[in-house]
Every structure is written in structure tokens, then in C-alpha cells.
Design goal:
Order of helices and strands: EHEEEEEH
CATH superfamily: DNA Polymerase III, subunit A, domain 2
CATH architecture: Roll
Number of strands: 6
Number of domains: 1
Distance between the termini: 9 Å
Structural class: alpha+beta
Mean pLDDT: 77
Strand content: 25-35%
Largest sheet: 4 strands, antiparallel
Helix content: 25-40%
Low-confidence stretches: 87-94
Oligomer: single chain
Shape: globular
CATH class: Alpha Beta
């Protein structure tokens, strides 16, 4: 699954639905975001089994697919991208690219 989307737009939407994700869940899967891509539309879902929140974004994608990513992983990626942008911004702005290979 590969898709292209603005990192700022994705981050803003993830932050808007991340409030219901808790680190002390009985089911570890509830600490994750579900990414669904169909027909160049990305739907990101988070839930605590009582409340479900989702956002929809237009993306460029070569294929449909679905993937769960732990919110901790996305927090680490956000931290790295902020540090990289601060170091590189004085030379030139580069897009944040995250590649995920699934089999």
C-alpha cells in the first residue's frame, strides 16, 4: 500500500481523532489507527469501543488496502519529522515521506 498525502494535513486529522486512544487499553489493537484506502480516498479510524471517530482525506494511491499503525509509531515519526524540518529548513523544505511495505 502506497499513498501520497500532505504530512501537515494528515497530522492535523490524526490529532483530531487521537483523543480517544488510550495507552491503557485491554486490547492492544485499540492503541492503533486503522488506515483504509479505496478509490484514492483515505479513511483513518480510531476507537475505544464506545466511541469511534474517523476522518476522510483525498490521496494519490496506486492500490487499495488497509493497515493498522500504532499511535506510538506515528508519534515517533512526528517527532523525527519536526526535528528534520528544523535542521533542514534553513537550506530547503523537503516533504516528509514514510514508506510502509506490506505483504
Amino acid at each position: 500500500m502506497r499513498f501520497i498525502v500532505s504530512s501537515g494535513l494528515l497530522l492535523k486529522n490524526l490529532q483530531s481523532i487521537s483523543g480517544i486512544i488510550s495507552a491503557s487499553n485491554i486490547l492492544p489493537i485499540l492503541e492503533s489507527f486503522l488506515f483504509l484506502i479505496k478509490d484514492n480516498k483515505l479513511t483513518v479510524v480510531s476507537t475505544d469501543l464506545e466511541t469511534t471517530m474517523k476522518v476522510n482525506l483525498d490521496v494519490q494511491s496506486t492500490a487499495d488496502g488497509r493497515l493498522c499503525i500504532q499511535s506510538k509509531v506515528l508519534n515517533i515519526l512526528q517527532f523525527i519529522s519536526i526535528i528534520m524540518l528544523k535542521k533542514v529548513s534553513q537550506f530547503k523544505r523537503i516533504p516528509n515521506i514514510v514508506k510502509v511495505k506490506s505483504q
